[in-house]
Amino acid sequence: MLDQMTPAAVAPPGPELGARMYEISAAAPFGAMLSSTPTRDGVLGQRCYRVLHDLDAPCPGCPALGLAGQAGPVMVVRRLQGDGIELVRAERTAGMAIRVLVCPVDDHAVSDLVAARMAALVERSGLTPRERDVFELILLGRAHAQIASALEIGVRTVKFHQRNLQRKIGFESRLDLSRLLL
Fold first, then answer.
1. Contacts of residue 155, Cβ cutoff 8 Å, sequence gap at least 6
2. What residues make up the domain containing 21?
3. What domain count does the chain have?
4. Nearest CA to 89 among 110, 109, 67?
5. For residue 115, how far is the Cα from the chain centroid?
């Protein structure tokens, strides 16, 4: 899952792709910028949420805030204005600092991640060829009747395969399936 990626999997690709890394204070004053890559003039000592996002308080869902009581790093996925997402990973460093790595991800990369996750789910779950067919059409948002027509089977058979998929893969509804893919 995206929230369980290893540090090597989210190593900064470099400033040419828009990645940035910075360290902030974990102690009072929380969020004070200690360093920034790429380097930005006049930001050291200022609050990250003020400098980077023009906010008066920490960002909603800030992974640095999520470190309270956590032993390991915290990663969140944030939707950008417009298209795309960014992965934001926060981890404690030696001392009272938090390192934050921000990596933008374009829609093509997100699609590749979802496809890889889907392939792993299918492989691990031991789906039959017909269950795989039904699974792919469910992921495309097709209704039971549309799946039945496309696969030339009955609607009751589609529902039967969907129940098997839910049991084998471990999702409760079509909406819940998105949780497993990200």
1. 144, 145, 148
2. 12-105
3. 2
4. 67
5. 14
